[in-house]
Specification:
It is a single chain. The chain is an alpha/beta fold. Helices cover 33% and strands 19% of the residues. The strands form 2 sheets. A 9-stranded mixed β-sheet has the order 6-5-4-1-7-8-9-10-11, with helices on both faces. A two-stranded antiparallel sheet has the order 2-3. α6 packs parallel to α8.
Length: 396
């Protein structure tokens, strides 16, 4: 029999303070009050198929603090959540889930008070209205988004199109122990990312609706677009893994500044040209256009429109990164169908890839099927460089 743990009064008080702090995290911010009972019932009772479902998963369980140009300390994960919330509030034709993975509370405090150990926060918006905001625990689930996918399957409505965006640090190709501060012994790699993405895929009935929404000959995969906002996401192994569930992938083959990708162009799904342009104008920008226009009948979204939407997000992200960073900027759009012959046989040995020279590491994939936007750093030996490949094969 295990010896019973003895807690001193001071330790008990410390644990209680930790639990009180954790409970405070469960309260709703002043501007994030859940809807009233009548409104919530009306939102939940609406069984009509939504135009789209968009899932943001923001990893904040690591070091994401940085100083902006004014010297103020900021959290890159909090910035990503704020950007996702702006999209959610304007998505009147769809549903948006924002999962924010955060550092876990003290295990002793959580065990003492039989608390689940909340280390995640979910906000769900439907047709632009906040439907729910709640904490959740990742303690009993794996690193393949088990807690998040369970909540998504419990709360998600039927949707025609599906999108997924991940914000975090570089994802190892394998052996990713230590990725999350709260669970340093757990592995998170491209393998877990792929499994997690698959867990968000719609069920068989919804998958049929997705296939029907494509133009003839399109692949009809569960996700129209996956946005991978991490450093060095443009590896053949990573894109190959995501290609099993996505038609298009946006990623960076190099380092990505913590200001991350800008996905406000998702607002085009609900508002066409007007809302994204107005939203960008408030930041002194103009919206990039590529002919995307939403259909009144969401079942008629065409693959060509989705390509244009993906291009808009790619270009908008590039513009924002150019304005906010002094370092190299790389944003690439990968057309999975066009890349299928290459992705079926990517470089098989990441251990060998790490010993390649720079030219071999960067020129390890085709130019066709990829749209690459590049700006060299404004200082250093590469400041006069005019272009780079959309691939990175030096992963670990």
């Amino acid at each position: 029999m295990k010896a019973r743990r003895q807690f001193s009064l001071s330790r008990l008080a410390g644990a209680a303070a930790a639990v009180l702090s954790l409970a405070a995290c469960a309260s709703f911010p002043e501007k994030m009050q859940p809807p009233g009972a009548d409104e919530a019932r009306a939102l939940q009772a609406d069984t009509s198929r939504l135009g789209f479902s968009l899932v943001y998963l923001v990893h904040g369980d690591a070091g994401y603090a940085y100083h902006d140009e004014s010297g103020h300390l900021r959290g890159a994960d909090e910035d990503a959540v704020a950007g996702a919330t702006e999209v959610a509030k304007g998505s009147t034709e769809g549903e948006v889930f924002i999962f924010h993975q955060r550092k876990s509370a003290s295990y002793a405090a959580a065990s003492l008070w039989h608390h689940g150990g909340a280390d995640g926060f979910l906000t769900q918006y439907r047709r632009g209205r906040l439907l729910r905001a709640e904490t959740y625990s990742r303690r009993e689930s794996g690193m393949d988004f088990g807690a998040e996918t369970a909540l998504y399957r419990r709360y998600a409505a039927r949707s025609t199109l599906h999108f997924f965006a991940y914000y975090g640090h570089e994802i190892p190709l394998r052996e990713g122990a230590g990725y999350s501060s709260s669970y340093p012994d757990r592995n998170f790699s491209v393998v877990e990312l792929q499994r997690g993405l698959h867990g968000f895929a719609p069920d068989s009935n919804q998958a049929g609706a997705i296939a029907d929404a494509r133009v003839p000959g399109a692949a009809g995969k569960p996700f129209s677009l996956v946005v991978l906002s991490t450093c060095r996401g443009g590896t053949p192994e990573t894109i190959s893994a995501l290609s099993q569930d996505a038609d298009f992938v946006i990623a960076s083959p190099a380092d990505l500044h913590l200001s991350y990708f800008d996905t406000r162009a998702f607002l085009e799904l609900s508002h066409g040209e007007s809302t994204p342009r107005d939203s960008l104008a408030s930041h002194g920008e103009s919206a990039p256009r590529d002919g995307f226009a939403p259909r009144n009948d969401t079942a008629l979204y065409a693959n060509t429109n989705l390509r244009a939407l993906a291009r808009d997000i790619t270009r908008q992200s590039f513009r924002r990164l150019k304005e906010n960073t002094q370092t190299e900027v790389t944003v690439a759009l990968y057309d999975v169908e066009a890349l299928r012959p290459f992705l079926a046989h990517p470089r098989p040995d990441p251990d060998r890839n790490r010993y390649l020279g720079r030219a071999e590491r960067e020129n390890c994939g085709p130019d066709t099927g990829v749209e690459m936007l590049y700006q060299p750093p404004r200082f250093g030996k590469d400041k006069d460089r005019s272009a780079r490949s959309a691939w990175e094969c030096g992963g670990s």
